[in-house]
Amino acid sequence: MVNGDGAHDHTEEAESKQDRDGEADGGEESNEQEVIVIQDTGFTVKIQAPGTEPFDLQVSPQEMVQEIHQVLMDREDTCHRTCFSLQLDGNVLDNFAELKSIEGLQEGSLLKVVEEPYTVREARIHVRHIRDLLKSLDPSDAYNGVDCNSLSFLSIFTDGDLGGAKATDSGKRKKKGNELEQIDCTPPEHILPGSKERPLVPLQPQNKDWKPMQCLKVLTMSGWNPPPGNRKMHGDLMYLYIVTVEERHVSVTASTRGFYLNQSTTYTFNPKPANPSFLSHSLVELLSQISPLPLRHPFERIATPFQVYSWTAPQVDHAMDCVRAEDAYTSRLGYEEHIPGQTRDWNEELQTTRELPRKNLPERLLRERAIFKVHSDFAAAATRGAMAVIDGNVMAINPGEETRMQMFIWNNIFFSLGFDVRDHYRELGGDAAAHAAPTNDLNGVRAYGAVDVEGLYTLGTVVVDYRGYRVTAQSIIPGILEREQEQSVIYGSIDFGKTVVSHSKYLELLDKTSRPLKVQRHNVLNEKNETVELCSSVECKGIIGNDGRHYILDLLRTFPPDLNFLPVEGEELPPESQRCGFPLQHRHRLACLRQELIEAFVEHRYLLFMKMAALQLMQQKANKDCNKTDAPAITDASAESSADTTQAAPSDPPAGKELEESIPGLAQAKELAETLVAEDGSDPKSREVVLNACKAVGSISNTSFDIRFNPDIFSPGVRFPDDSAEDVQKQKQLLKDTAAFLVSCQIPSLVKDCLDHSALPMDGATLTEALHQRGINIRYLGTVLEFVDKTPAKAQLEHFYRIGISELITRCAKHIFKTYLQGVELSALSAAVSHFLNCFLSSFPDAVAHLPPDELVSRRKSRKRRNRVPGGGDNTAWASLTPSELWKNIASEAQSYYHFTIQCESADQVVEKYGLQKITLLREISVKTGIQILIKEYNFDSRHKPAFTEEDILNIFPVVKHVNPKASDAFHFFQSGQAKVQQGFLKEGCELINEALNLFNNVYGAMHVEICACLRLLARLNYIMGDHPEALSNQQKAVLMSERVLGIEHPNTIQEYMHLALYCFANGQLSTALKLLYRARYLMLVVCGEDHPEMALLDSNIGLVLHGVMEYDLSLRFLENALSINSKYHGPRSLKVALSHHLVARVYESKAEFRSALQHEKEGYTIYKNQMGEAHEKTKESSEYLKYLTQQAVALQRTMNEIYKNGSNASIMPLKFTAPSMASVLEQLNIINGIIFIPLR
Question: What is the pTM of this model?
C-alpha cells in the first residue's frame, strides 16, 4: 500500500497534524497528501497462466506473494488451479516474501504461473478447492448456514451480469414500436398497490442454474485408497470416485503429474489409464471433458466474515459429499484443518494480533487485518462449540454437578451457561441478571477493545443464544485453570465489593481508558474498612496470566447504572423522569446506560458549559464597559478572550447566537475554553467563570470541563469512604440527570427525527438500531411508544408505532419461547417449534401439539441419565400451551418488562387492532429466535387447521453476538470523503472514497457491511459525475454484498435495489429497472407492509418508469398510491406532495385527460405558491405547465366540438399526444431520489 519507508514519516506527520487540528481544514489537506502518497506506490505486474491470455494485476509492495496466489484462486479463469508456483525470469518466488523484497520485480514485470507436481497434501487441497467451487453453485450451504455462505438473488432479476451490457439506445426511440412491446411491465397481482395478499414463496425465486452439484452427483474418495506400494512407485497419490449428472460412474487417479481417468470399477481395481488417456493438472479440465462447468459472480460465492442465516429455505435434497462428511467428524474433535494435529490457541492468537506494531499506515493495516481475521475465525469456532455444548456433544469439566452449573472446554474455548450458578447474582436478580450479564460484559469488551490501550488485554468473547439457552464463549487466560480464582485476582472484587483489592499497574493501564470511557477514578472500602482505589467498577477483575499479560474480565458494569429502571429507597428522580412514571422496577439490577447515551449526554453538557462561560464573560465585559475605572484586575489575556467571545455574539440574547455558531464545529467554543484554561488561574475573574460553569454542569474538575461517571454508585455491597461523600453525592446527581436526559431529550429527538424522516426504521432491526444510536435501550420501547401515542402528529408516526408494537410483541414472544424451548428434548424440537408458532400466529383456536410417536420414545431410559445434556429436558409440558394462554403471557410480559399495556387475546385481535401483518410477525420472530421455516404459502387465517406442521420447521440456528473490529484508517478516509462530497468537491471525494475502499478490502477482505456503504456512495458519485456504466457496476456489487452480508430482505438491501434500478434506467435497461423495483416493492411489503413513507418513494419510481414505457394506467395506480402516502406522512402542504401531484398530472396529460391533469397540477401549484412564494422558479414552472395544459384542453375541446358539429367529414387538426422522452423521465427520477447535479468544483 505504501512504499517502504519514505512514506512513513510523512504519514506520521500528517496524522499528528490532523489530531491537532481536530476537524479543521488542516486535517483534510494532510489527508489528501496522504492519499497521493498511497496511490503513487502501487504498481502493476503482468500474470501469464497456462492456456490464458496474460492479464494485469495491481499490487502493492507490502503484499506477500501468497496474496497473488489467493487472487488467482478467486479469478474466474484461474480459479481451478491450486498447486502452482509463481516465477519471475525462471526463479520461483517464495510464498511468504513481501513483494518489495524481491529483486527485479517492478512495474510491468511478467510473472509466470507454473504448474507444480502434486503431493498427497496438495492433491487433497485441490480436491477440496474444486468441491468448494462446485458447491458455490449449490445453495445448500447457504440454507444450512455453514462455511460463511449466504444467499443472493440479484442475478435472477438482472439475467446475469449488468456491466455495461444491453445498453439499448432507447433515448432516441428509433424502434419506437417494438422496443417497448418486448417489455412485459405488468407485475404479479400481489405487488400492485392495495393488494392484501402477502405470499412467501417469491422471497426466494427459483434460480435455473441451481441444480445442486450441477455437473457432479458424487465426488468422493474411492474405496481403493490408499494406493498399494507398487502403484505408489508409479506416482499414484490417491483415487477418487465420481458420478456425473448423466449417471456416468468414473474412477480418477490423482498422481504427482495430475489427474486422469483409470479403469477401476466399484469391484475391480485396474489402475491403468482409461482410453483415450487424458492427463490434466487440474481436476476441472478433466471434468469438463466429461461434463461442463458453469460459474457465478465472485461476490455470490466469496465467504462472508460472519455467518448469515436464512429464516426460510426450500426443501433441498441431501447430496452425498465425502469432504463434508469427513469434516463433520474430524473437526468436531476440535482439530482445525489448517494446523494438522493441534488445536488453535485462540487466546494467544487474539492477544498477539493486538500486540502487532501500529506506528504507520501499513503496520496498522496489517494489524487490523490480523485482528479482524482472528475475530471472525474465533466467532465461527465459538458458535460451533456453543451448539455442540447445547446439543450435548461436549463433556463438561465438572460433570458431577447439575446441568445448569456445568462448564465446558472445547477447542481451547471456555463455555458457560447463562444461569445464576451458586447464587452469584442472587441480589441482582438471579437468572434474569445472569442472562443480562453476558451481553453487558460483551459491551464492555467492545468498549475497551475500541479504546485499544497497549498492555491491557480483554478476552475474546462471543455470546450465543441457541435452543433457549444463552452460552458465553471466552478465550482462556493461560494458567487460570490451574489456580484458584481467589489467588489469581489482583485487582477488583470476586464478591461484588465485599472484598476488594487494587494494583498499581492496573490503575496505570485503566487510567488511560478513564477519559475515553468516562469512568471516574474513585475509592471504595474493603472488608477491613480500608480505602482501595479503583478505576473501573468493583466487579471488573484484573488477572495476570502465565504469559505475563494484564487481563481484565467481567466488564458488565463498564457503564453506569440506569436509575430509571433501578428504584433506590430514599432517592428522588428529576421531575422529567417522574412524569413518565419512572423509576420502574426491572427484572434485574444490571440495567446500564448505553455508551452512546453517555457520549450524547457529555456532548450536551459541553455545549451548556460553553454557553454558561460565554454568558458570564459577556456580563463581565458589560460591567467593565460601565465602570472602566474599578476593573484593573482583568489581564490582557482575559480581555482578549472575552473580546473574542463577544465578537462572536453581539446579538441579544447573548448566548443564543454564540451557541448556534459553536454547534457545527465546536471550534470557537473550544478556543474560548482553551484560552480560559490556559491562563493557569492567574486571573481570578476568568477562574471564577470556569468554576461556576464547571459547577453548573457537574464537571469533576473545577478548572476544566471533564465529566466522568463512577460505575459503582448504587451497587449493592459497595461502600464508599466518608471523605468522598460529597463526591458520591455529585455522582448520584449526575446519574439522575443522565436518566432524565434520556427521557427528556433523546426520546423526543428520536420521534422528531422520525417525523422529519431523517430516521426511517422499516423493521425491528432498523428500529432497534435507531434507538441504540441515540443511546435508548430497548427496555424503553414501551415508554417510546407511549410518547408517540401522545404526540399531536401521531398520524404521521403510524408506521413507527406499528413497527414498535410488532417489535414489542415479538420480543415478548421471544422471552416466552426461550423458557419454552429449554424443556424440549431434541427429538421433539420441530414439533415444539411448530406448535409455538401455531399458538402465536394461527387463527386456529385449539392448536394441538404432536408428540413424537410412542415407538420412538424408549421406556427403559433411566430417569437419572436423562438430565445430563443441557438441552435434554424430558418433559412434554410444552405440548399443553394454548393460543389464548400464550397471548395472555405475551400481554403480561409486555406489562412487566416494557410496562406497556396491550389489549389482546389472540393473534387476530392484535393484527386487527394495530394493523400488523402475520407474515411480518413470522419474519420477526424467526429472525430473533433463529427458526428456519420451509418456504411455502402458509394459511394463517384458517379456523379449521393449524398453519404450521412439524415438517415446516427445517432448522434452528444460533443467534450470535460478538465484537466487530473496525478498520479505523479506512473509516477516516471514508468520512473525509463524505465531507468532501458534502462540500461539493466530488472529484476529491471520489478519490478519498476509492482509497477507503482499497483499505477496507485490505482489512476486511472482499465482503463487509462497511464496504457495501462505500460501494453505494461510489456508485452515486459515478452517477452524478455522468459515468453510468461504472455506477451500475459498483451498485451491482453493493446489492450483491448487502444480500450476502445483511440478508436478502434486509431494509438496506431494499434500498440498494432501488438505487440499482435508477442506474439501470439511466443506462437504458428499462425492463431490468422495472424488475428490480418490483423486487424491492415485494420485499418491502413482506418486511413492513404498504403503509410506510419509503413506499411513496418506491411507488413514484415505479410509476415514472411505467410512464416512460407508456403504461399509463398502471403508472397511475402507483403514482396515486405514492400521492396518498406522501399526503399522509408529509402532510398535505408538503413539497413532496406537490411533486407527487405534478407527476400524476403528467401521466393524465399523456392520456389526454386534461381535466384531471389540470386538477392535480392546480393542487401542486397552490402548495408551491403558499410554501415558496410567487417568484420562486418551482411556482413559475408550475404556472407555465398549467397554461400549457389549459391550451391543450381547449384545443381538444374545439376538436371535439368540430366532430359533433360536422360529423365524419370534420377537418380535424392532429393533436399532439406526447410520450414522455426518456430524458424527461430520468430528470424526474433524479429529483425524487434526491440526486442533484451540481456544477463540478
Answer: 0.85
